[in-house]
Amino acid sequence: xxxxxxxFHGGLRLEGHKAMSMHEPITDAPLxxxxxxxxxxxxxxxxxxxxxxxxxxxxxxxxxxxxxxxxAPVHATTSGTVVAxxxxxxxxxxxxxxxxxxxxxxxxxxxxxRQPVRDYESLDPSALRxxxxxxxxxxxxxxxxxxxxxxxxxxxxxxxxLILNGAECEPYITxxxxxxxxxxxxxxxxxxxxxxxxxxxHCIIAIxxxxxxxxxxxxxxxxxxEAEFIEVVQIPTIYPTGGEKQLIKILTGREVPSHGLPxxxxxxxxxxATAAAVNDAIHEGTPLIERIVTVTGEAVDRPxxxxxxxxxxxxxxxxxxxxxxxxxxxxxxxxPMMGFAxxxxxxxxxxxxxxxxxxxxxxxxxxxxxxxxxCGQCATVCPALLLPQQLYWYAHARNFDRVQxxxxxxxxxxxxxxxxxxxxxxxxxxxxxxxxxxxAQERQKEKADRARxxxxxxxxxxxxxxxxxxxxxxxxxxxxxKSRAAGDRGKQAEIEAALARxxxxxxxxxxxxxxxxLTEAQKQAIAAVEARRQRLQQGDDGES
Length: 544
Ligand code: SF4
Ligand code: SF4
Known about the structure:
With 544 residues, this protein is α/β, with parallel strands linked by helices.
């Protein structure tokens, strides 16, 4: 039976440019001499290094541990020696450096001993999630959210539907399509593991209808499994159909609430490449140390998909794709809609690098921004049903309260609004700026709140200690009084001795006074002053 499909608001039908990078099978990229591994390749707290400069490491060895719940460990992607633990430029729109571990490869590519899970179905879902966490797996579709968290629905949640996202809707990018064509079993086996972790009732692998080969291959591969709870569904090729909320809408007609998550309506969405990584971690004991990257664009002569070790410099991949450096205007990490220009081409591939897009010079996309003419075209195409023009005004005016009133955080940064804007306003850049500012302000506020709470706890502790001390003294006095009244000499002596000890201890703790260790002459002078003070108090100044 064919599944009924729904539509989401807005979206665009874009030229795919996909075929250009799908002529060749996936090829292993050359092993770099040096890998640079950022400690923050995921959403959440950066990992903490566990190795030192000069230490030899093996491929697959954990070299940085997760520090908090929302975090992910980092593993050596080849064997060699750690030559640096420090800041290096990383692929980020800011172009700023971030902490990294640098490994000089020894060329042996020697694995650490791996420990696959023999019978994952016998494992408790939480134990399974822990294996996935320790393998450093994060969402490979671009978000980089630690996957084990999305495999933990919470105690009272039931997962009705687990969706594997194979839409890959952004132009030029084909790494997921090639993975589905060449490694369907890894995806299906990973999906089965995820289903067990989530105890999901039903699963869908969603593929855009422009990926016919991938669809056929997956349907055929599925026939080998007795898995009637898995459906492979073709969905219309409309950008951004691969957005989590848009995909759910198309497949089920249901809306994820504003500020909500798919799990709020009993659904979980993972990327197909993440499922393949989960398969590798469970069935082979392999942590996430490599991924497929599409290297494409009109400024390369041999666009293709490469299987790449994390930490490989972008420049190595571009050379493998016969890059025309002189003809290049810019290189984006990601696609033309959601990607960003990379300021330094020696930055390393990270877990979320799905595509390098080399754009040639003299492209029509470079047009100067003009004032907004309030045409409303941006709102027509917004798949999140937002008002991009208002978001732009308030982000531009740094009015971060109003921009949130217009649901800034529901914006998926798909770029549809900027794409159709006749004034060429870089709208998404304004939204990213506003989000970054709001996060920074919230972090600042949180820090100040934490400091205030710490101070309040400190005062409270002092006050409590004082009260307890007073109560102790009161109780002892009371006991002394009672024992005196009862004529209990022994008890009374004991209490008096205890009080004397406390008094002596207190006296010993007091700092020496400046009247200690005086000479005889000084003592006599003080006695004279004291005698005179007493006479004055009694009304006799001694001079009348
Ligand atoms: S599309 Fe551009 S010019 Fe038109 S309303 Fe939106 S921001 Fe303004
Ligand atoms: S970038 Fe944000 S505001 Fe613009 S169309 Fe996409 S979701 Fe809407």
